[in-house]
Amino acid sequence: MGEEISSIVSGSFIALGLAVIPVILKYFVLPVIIVIVISRFILKLRGNVLQGLVSLTALVCLFLFGIYGVPEMLQNLSASLN
C-alpha cells in the first residue's frame, strides 16, 4: 500500500516537472536570453540600459506567462496525468 501511494505521488511530481519546464523555458528563459544576446552583442548596450531592458523583458514575460503560460501548463499537466 505504501509503495503504491509512493509511486502515485512520484508520478505526479514527475508529470508536474514535465509540465512546468517547457512552459518556463518558453515564456522566461528563451526571451530573456534572446534580449541579452541582441542588446549586448548586436546593439552593444551596457550597464543600466541593459539591466533596464532585461528587467522590462522579464516583466513582459511574467505578464505573458500569467495570461498564456499558466493555462498551457495546466493543460500539459492534465494531459500527462491522464
Counting H and I runs of at least 4 residues, what is the number of helices? 2
The secondary-structure element order is HH
Proportion of β residues? under 5%
The pLDDT mean sits at 89
Provide the helix percentage: over 70%
Low-confidence stretches: none
Describe this structure in words.
- The chain has 82 residues and is an all-alpha fold.
- 93% of the residues lie in helices and 0% in strands.
- The protein is built from 2 helices and no strands.
- Helix 1 runs antiparallel to helix 2.
- The protein is elongated.
- The two termini are 21 Å apart.
- The model has no long low-confidence stretch (mean pLDDT 89).
Quick gist of this model?
The protein has two helices and no strands. It has helices at residues 2-42, 47-81.
Keywords:
82 residues; mainly alpha; 2 helices; 93% helix; elongated
Could you outline the blueprint of secondary structure elements for this entry?
Elements: H1 2-42, H2 47-81
